[in-house]
Model the fold of this input.
Amino acid sequence: MARRSEHSQEQIREMVLSAAEAIVIDEGVEALTVRKIALEIGYTVGSIYMVFANMQDLMMHIKGRTLDQLALRLQEVPDALDIDQRILALADAYLGFAAENYNRWRIIFEPDLQYSNELPDWYQQKVELIFAPIEALFRQLAPESGADQARLAARALWCGVHGVCVLSLNGNLGRTGVENAESTVRLLVESFIRGWRR
Amino acid sequence: MARRSEHSQEQIREMVLSAAEAIVIDEGVEALTVRKIALEIGYTVGSIYMVFANMQDLMMHIKGRTLDQLALRLQEVPDALDIDQRILALADAYLGFAAENYNRWRIIFEPDLQYSNELPDWYQQKVELIFAPIEALFRQLAPESGADQARLAARALWCGVHGVCVLSLNGNLGRTGVENAESTVRLLVESFIRGWRR
DNA sequence: ACCTGAACACCGTTCAAGT
DNA sequence: ACCTGAACACCGTTCAAGT
Done:
């Protein structure tokens, strides 16, 4: 192979990352192997270890990109509605992203064996960005409750929405389909908000 | 090896299953291999394929057993309380089981590639048994709403509780710890019920 | 009929060797 | 310095051969 010096390390890193992403999207994590990535980008297996420490490290960066896209999607939710409707719209957007990007979305929540004790800082920050918009809305929803209560409520509801997505989409408790998931999300969000603000 | 005919097929099946279970509990699914099971029970790898079709099949039965134990745990929740309290107690029991049996609980919800289209009947039934008690309570909670509405509400809330468990326990969004998970579950359940019954 | 264990087609990771 | 590719220590699964 006469690939030597055709690309910078930075370029190779990007090639590896996007090739890996494509495989995950099309075939699922289970289909992702170093050898397949190497074949795809025209380098050999060894070269992948020049730009990523190992497969776990690579996975972490794939997840990071997915979080970025998810954050963007949540930011697209229009401003104009009242607060209740915005929370519901955010939940719908979350479900929509999960459904449309199922193969990359689901790996975000697989327990990470390598970094289980402490996730990298840059990754933690991306996670915060997902929770931020919903927390902000809860603060607006009941300013007199205080930021702590708002944070707790946002967290509880968002975990709940996530649960609906997981169980609706992975088909492990009898497949329900997305339409059904939407109405489940709606019921959870509306009831929770009504009950929370008393 | 002079193991020939020392055990019935049924016995070997049971030996494989419980050896596999022990490995999953102690070391996690990632550590489960045919070779390790074989070593543990004193047979060779080939013999595992006499009693299970493959690893996925074996996994399915490990999951089935976990669902059985979870169902038992939920049945232990005392009767005497009022309905709100019983729903909360069920949610707490669910969280408690998940926390105490994390390694076997988490694999229940991993997408199953082999059976993704249609889960085996015996497995579906076990899943129904998990949802049954909570649905029954929701029917009692608002008999005038009808069985469909109760089913939907039970499903929405239970998915939500599940979401709190997943995100609290797998540490993928900044580890929170179980005490915190308990108060999150409480907030979700109480707010939802209050909001649902108006 | 029951069970073995070598063989097959894979993995992720490393590192001496080539340019 | 960059990159190769063979080697290592693993996988799950199969199946001819032994008892």
